[in-house]
Amino acid sequence: MINGDYSKMRKILSKYLYLLPIVMAGFQPSAFSRESAQIDSLNLLLVTAREDTNKVDLLVALAKQFEADNPKQVLEYMKEALPLADGLDYKDGLFYTYSLIGVAHSDLGEYNLAHKFFAIGLPLAEEIGDLEKISSSCGYKGVAFLKQGDFQKGLAWFFKTLDVNRAMEDTSRIATVLSNIGSCFQMQQNYRQALIYYQESLDIVNGLGYRKTEASNHLSMGAAHYNLGNIEMALKLYLEALNLYEQLGDKKNLALCYENLAIINFTDGDGTKALNYFLQALKINEDAGDKYGMIYSYSNIGTLYSEWGSYEKAVEYSEKSILLALEIGAKNELKETYKALSNIYEKSGNISKAYLNYKRYNNIKDSLFNERMSGQIAEMQTKHELDRKEHELEISDQEKQLLAKDNHIKEFRLYMLVVGIIGLFVIGVLVVNKLMTSLKITRGEKHLAEEEIKFKNRELENFAMRIVEKNEFLEQLKSTITNLHTRQEFAPEVRQISNTIQHNLYLDHDRRELEIRINQVNQAFLHKLDNYSSGLSKAEKRLCSLLMLELSSKDIAAVLNITPESVKVNRNRLRKKLQLEPHANIADFLKEL
């Protein structure tokens, strides 16, 4: 029986429950597929194969056998396939080759290289005009962004993939991308929304034999239930996922099961069993060369040793995680590990290194935010280019239809009247179809816009809470250092750190940046507010934006560097200016503007 004292461990390790299985609907390059041939028979065929397109197909099929757990072997096969496909100008072979190379680099944590090859593969898919290939390309990009921690871009590409899959009515691919959309929401700690998408995916695949997608949903739903405090349900789902992955022989996702089962066992008080599960996961990740998985394994083991008070071991494993994250440029994982290492040093009494690693954590966090903002421009350019090409294809189809109609009229002049009526009917159908297509696109764009607003507001809320956390952390450090003043041997260093902390407590940089971000995100809201009441001051508008984030008076006071009593006074004054009742909820009123 799992006991109820899970909150402490979830707080420490819940960020590592982001070890979610990301699934992709596979492609089938030729008659050779995972179900119809074994590695030995493919290698035998390869020995006698001529230097033609069949050999490219063989190399791609062989690479697919290792896609799940050996990205380095995939790259070996693709090194041979790429020049051959290029020399033959074999478009299908080039698409599969570039895509598999991108997937392998993504699995190795080499995201810049992954995006480079995906950027070549997607135009090839569009040139070929194959919806399955376009779906795969969009999905691959979504997975890579998701693993990087760029959830906004990942979600945008997954919704694009979902539209293509629904156009094809491909059940397997629809279920797959729904699962990955769930992972996007889960990584943003929106667990209830994530469960909705996981369950929708599971409902589709139930009874159809798609065991990989079924296993992925069980494991991901287990992580969501764990974070919601449903420990019994989480354990049940993890064990179901473990059983399915063992049947599939999927070592990569077996490692994820071991990681999550380790956390469950630690929660239940069995630290030894938890460590054993973590080490099993680490061994699988090391054998497969999965650097992304190794980062999490090292971090989890380090956190476990920290809980035991074995700080040297904790630092050792955490630094391994940091070195690997630096090597592959995994900034999101680097950020979390810096924060974990700061906590380890704080617990061990090394205040200077705790503060140093917390600063590193904050710097990475700011860097990730800036990268996401600058990347939105490139994303919009890519979307515009895709829309333009789709429009060109639509125009081409219409021209062909008009030409066919004209030839028909010339050949059957005696039936001009009848043909004219039929032609009008066909044009009417085309207009209706085009209107329906435009309506669908408009709805999709509206949905993406709404999701983007939600993401921006969440980032704004996170930034505001980070100001609160930073000040609380600095106050705590200042209090700890004050207690060290009695020890003369540390007096100069302690005084220097104390002054630095005091300086940071009263800097207005974070608050100015918060105000800039509020103005960027809430331009439409602020415009409505001005129309309703033009007499509001700049400070009152800022208070309205913070109330919209549903921050408490205490948190608002910390963000604005004022007392909670001042916040209460400002709330009352704001109610009067907005002509509200004395006890009216200001946030509810503002949301209805």
How does this model look, in words?
Helix 6 runs antiparallel to helix 7. The chain contains 26 helices and no strands. It is mostly helical and 593 residues long.
Secondary structure topology:
Elements: H1 7-13, H2 39-47, H3 53-65, H4 71-88, H5 91-107, H6 111-128, H7 131-148, H8 151-168, H9 171-187, H10 191-205, H11 211-227, H12 231-248, H13 251-267, H14 271-288, H15 291-308, H16 311-328, H17 331-348, H18 351-411, H19 416-482, H20 491-505, H21 509-521, H22 523-532, H23 538-548, H24 553-560, H25 564-577, H26 586-591
Descriptive tags:
593 residues; 26 helices; single chain; mainly alpha; globular
Q: What structural class is derived from the secondary structure elements? A: mainly alpha
Give the topology string: H per helix, E per strand.
HHHHHHHHHHHHHHHHHHHHHHHHHH
Tally of individual helices: 26
User: How would you describe the shape?
Assistant: globular
Low-pLDDT runs: 1-37, 375-386
Distance between the termini: 50 Å
State the total count of DSSP E strands.
0
Largest sheet: none
Mean pLDDT: 77
Helix content: over 70%
* Percentage of residues in strands: under 5%
Radius of gyration: 28 Å
